């Protein structure tokens, strides 16, 4: 036998198989950890910590209103086969654990807001509950960047538990993101500190900014009823307009998830300026101004400051 060694045609094909093997191994590793989160903002946070080891699906997508979400059969299937299910908690998405369990999900449901100091709706007036419960905890805890630090810790701990091989990556991503949150938090405080006290008030369509108000010292007034997306009565709208005129509120703001007609009416009757669009419960699409949590908070801050600083 005097065949040339290695046989010439074998070499490239062996290399090709090795490349294909590597490709499939890395493709499988990348799609290994399937995670379902309830809504777009939470999905972004999970993606930041999970990096390339996870695939995240947010059931309530960009610009969608969590108040009126109805789970589809495809959402149940996704939740049922997920490796990890992440909820906001605080009554925002109580349907998610039920949906996942009914579809056969056996793992833990991570509640990202665990450990934050909850704000009662009654603490700051006429707030709405997403679940219609009597307790009325304000679910919009992500509007305070300090709370999102706790979200990130909870998400990182859950990812480490679900996928110990990724521990180093998850911890590094979480540390990097916490630094970005600290910078964001400081920039919001600096900006609000520049505003004179009498200009620190804001009108928006649904009452989603209680945590932002508590953390950063702005006052938010909103006309929406206690159920969030119900039409407020004529009398409460009239009362709000009178209050705006009395307090000389500088601007009213639209929200990406809300019908603009009511806020337009309040704006035209109160004489306040339109301040632009705030993102409260959902991110924008990828080509919009708020495709990530950090971009959303920076966009909201810039929008608020432009309107409130103007004379
Ligand atoms: Zn809301």
List keywords for this structure.
311 residues, alpha/beta, Rossmann fold, four-stranded parallel beta sheet, 10 helices, 10 strands, globular, disordered N terminus, binds zinc ion
Describe the structure.
With 311 residues, the protein is α/β, with parallel strands linked by helices. 46% of the residues lie in helices and 14% in strands. The chain is built from 10 helices and 10 strands. A 4-stranded parallel sheet has the order 2-1-3-4, with helices on both faces. Helix 5 (145-162) packs antiparallel against helix 6 (167-193), helix 6 (167-193) packs parallel to helix 10 and helix 8 crosses helix 9. The longest helix has 27 residues, at 167-193. The chain is globular, with a radius of gyration of 24 Å. The N and C termini lie far apart (93 Å). It binds zinc ion.
């Amino acid at each position: 036998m005097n065949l040339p060694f290695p046989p010439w045609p074998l070499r490239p094909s062996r290399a090709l198989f090795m490349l294909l093997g590597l490709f499939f191994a890395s493709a499988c590793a990348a799609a290994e950890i399937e995670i379902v989160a309830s809504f777009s903002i939470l999905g972004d946070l999970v993606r930041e910590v999970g990096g390339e080891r996870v695939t995240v699906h947010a059931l309530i997508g960009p610009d969608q209103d969590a108040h009126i979400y109805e789970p589809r059969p495809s959402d149940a299937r996704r939740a049922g086969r997920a490796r990890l299910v992440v909820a906001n908690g605080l009554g925002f998405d109580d349907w998610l654990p039920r949906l996942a369990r009914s579809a056969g999900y056996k793992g833990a449901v991570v509640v990202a807001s665990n450990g934050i100091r909850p704000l009662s709706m009654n603490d700051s007036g006429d707030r709405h509950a997403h679940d219609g419960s009597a307790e009325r905890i304000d679910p919009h805890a992500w509007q305070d960047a300090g709370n999102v630090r706790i979200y990130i810790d909870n998400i990182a701990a859950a990812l480490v538990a679900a996928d110990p091989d990724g521990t180093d990556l998850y911890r590094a991503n979480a540390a990097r993101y916490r630094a970005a949150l600290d910078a964001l938090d400081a920039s919001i405080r600096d900006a609000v500190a520049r505003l004179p006290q009498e200009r620190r008030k804001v009108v928006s369509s649904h009452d989603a900014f209680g945590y932002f108000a508590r953390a950063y010292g702005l006052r938010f007034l909103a006309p929406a009823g206690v159920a969030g997306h119900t039409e407020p009565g004529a009398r409460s709208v009239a009362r709000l307009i009178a209050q705006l005129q009395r307090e000389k509120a500088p601007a009213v703001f639209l929200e990406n998830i809300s019908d603009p007609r009511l806020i337009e009416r309040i704006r035209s009757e109160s004489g306040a300026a339109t301040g632009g669009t705030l993102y409260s419960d959902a991110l924008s699409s990828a080509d919009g101004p708020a495709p990530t949590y950090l971009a959303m908070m920076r966009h909201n801050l810039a929008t608020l400051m432009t309107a409130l600083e103007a004379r």
